[in-house]
Specification:
Elements (H helix, E strand, L loop, with lengths): L12 H43 L15 H5 L77 E3 L6 E3 L13 H12 L5 H12 L5 H14 L1 H12 L3 E11 L2 E9 L4 E6 L4 H8 L5 E4 L13 E3 L1 H12 L3 H25 L5 H23 L5 H12 L18 H17 L5 H20 L3 H15 L17
Parallel strand pairs: 3-6, 6-7
Antiparallel strand pairs: 1-2, 3-4, 4-5
Helix pairs in contact: 3-5, 3-13, 3-14, 5-13, 5-14, 6-13, 8-9, 9-10, 10-11, 13-14
Organism: Granulosicoccus antarcticus IMCC3135
Protein name: Transposase IS66 central domain-containing protein
């Protein structure tokens, strides 16, 4: 506040000069206060903008999972228009029937013949082949089998030394055979059952009573048996020309760890690690030299930009977030969103052979130029600092958005890795966290085995059963995944 004495009229010229200097000092103080208030106001406006954006975050405009959306956000999701067709089979559809099992594979055949005489008094000659074959499928009442191994001893009648028989190497050391060990591992990795639910299943269906610790030890035996096939998967994926990578949280007790995935067309490889840093990503990738499709996470920055493709659906969610902002930032976001959808649409038209390769690359180059110009305009924004920083960041990594133009095998999305992680996310919700290092090793291993078997079209249970049998009975696991000769699933 100004000095009250400044309000009195000066008596002399010197007093007037003194009051003027004091007034200029007060003006300077007021200017500094005003500038400070402006800075605080801008900071508060930015905080309010960020809080509003956080409140508006959903799975549509961020990397949050759909399960984290609020009730109102789920209600506002776009819903597919209701079909006008009736439920069930449509008129004129092709009929699908279960093929008949060959008679050689049928367990029992019951034949029915017509009466010997007709109503007119004549005799009936039976056809050599049945006119109708009706097969009924059922499952037998099952019970576990027990093999008791009795060891006898004896005493030498000469020296009196006691001798005892030894079990052969083919006899398992524990109380569980290889088929039971394989079943326990498969129920975990394929059907996401917890240890306690597996215990209940064995009691209900097989009348088998085992402790939780015994079931955990069975999983350890499966881990030992499947070690070589698991390493085969990792080596195979790292040798592929294109792979996808992603990661999700994994908990051991209350400690947060990470489950990493490296996925290709024929295999998926999982690895549990304590961190989400670059060192963990390096251990996952190993000697991988192909094209890597990921989100914009910096942990994969060891991969050169020339061999890395960013996921366009992740970019689209980011552009949806930017498009919801006001002023020029929202205009930039809407333009980027429009171009991103055009890229996806052009790619699909080329894959559906609606446009030829020359038109495809010409349109992509035009979209790429427009994309670059829009990012440059966003990087020069003066008001919306967050949009400006995001556009500057994308300009530095823009080349990774267009790596797919180098090789037609590179997809635009990282859906393959995200879908591979989905079974684990469900398992994590159903079975809680692991409690030991053994559990941390079992989960990625069994997920890799089951996921890879599904991708190449073989029975995951049969593969696990063979591996456990070779490990526990024969002493050497020789079974491997037939990556070069994929087959249809047998179950």
């Amino acid at each position: 506040m100004p000095d009250p004495h400044l309000l009195n009229p000066p008596q002399t010229l010197d007093e007037a000069r003194t009051q003027i200097e004091q007034l200029w000092g007060v003006v300077g103080q007021l200017e500094s206060i005003v500038s400070e208030l402006k800075a605080q106001n801008e900071e508060l406006v930015e905080q309010v903008r960020e809080l509003n954006e956080r409140m508006g975050k959903s799975s549509r405009n961020s990397s949050r999972p759909p399960s984290s959306d609020s009730t109102s956000q789920r209600a506002n999701r776009k819903k597919k228009p209701r079909s006008t067709k009736r439920k069930g089979a449509q008129p004129g559809h092709e009929k699908h029937e279960r093929p008949l099992v060959p008679e050689s594979d049928v367990d029992q055949i019951q034949r029915y013949f017509p009466t010997a005489a007709c109503g007119c008094g004549g005799s009936i000659f039976v056809d050599p082949e049945p006119r109708c074959r009706h097969q009924v499928f059922d499952i037998p009442v099952v019970r576990f089998s027990v093999i008791e191994h009795q060891l006898f001893g004896g005493q030498c009648n000469g020296c009196g030394k006691h001798h005892c028989a030894q079990t052969p190497d083919s006899v398992p050391s524990g109380q569980m055979g290889p088929n039971l060990v394989a079943l326990i591992a498969h129920l975990s990795g394929r059907y996401h059952l917890s240890i306690r639910n597996i215990q209940d299943y064995l009691v209900e269906h097989w009348q088998l009573h085992f402790s939780l610790g015994a079931l955990s030890q069975a999983q350890a035996k499966a881990t030992s048996a499947l070690g070589d096939p698991y390493r085969q998967i990792g080596d195979f994926v790292r040798q592929q020309p294109v792979a996808h990578a992603d990661e999700t949280r994994h908990f051991r007790g209350n400690e947060c760890r990470w489950l990493w995935s490296l996925v290709c067309v024929q295999a998926c490889y999982f690895l549990t690690q304590a961190s989400r840093g670059k060192e963990a990503a390096d251990r996952l990738l190993g000697e991988f030299t192909g094209y890597l499709v990921t989100d914009d996470y910096v942990g994969y920055n060891r991969v050169p930009e020339s061999r890395r493709q960013l996921c366009w659906p992740h970019l689209i969610r980011k552009f949806i977030d930017i498009a919801g902002r006001v002023s020029n930032g929202g205009k930039i976001g809407r333009r980027l969103l429009l171009l991103a959808h055009a890229v996806i649409r052009t790619r699909h038209r080329w894959q559906d052979q609606l446009i030829n390769e020359a038109v495809y690359y010409r349109r992509m180059q035009r979209l790429r130029r427009s994309f670059h110009q829009t990012l440059e305009r966003g990087a020069r924004l003066r008001i919306d600092g967050r949009t400006k920083r995001q556009c500057q960041h994308l300009l530095k990594r823009e080349s990774m958005c267009w790596t797919f133009l180098k090789d037609h095998r590179i997809p635009l999305d990282n859906n393959s890795a995200e879908r591979a992680l989905r079974p684990y996310v469900i398992w994590r919700k159903l079975s809680f966290a692991t409690q030991s290092y053994q559990g941390d090793q079992f989960r990625p291993l069994i997920l890799s085995i089951v996921g890879t078997a599904q991708r190449i079209g073989i029975s995951s249970y049969q593969f696990i059963r063979i591996a456990c049998h070779q490990s526990m009975i024969e002493g050497e696991v020789k079974v491997r995944f037939p990556f070069d000769t994929p087959r249809l699933a047998t179950s």
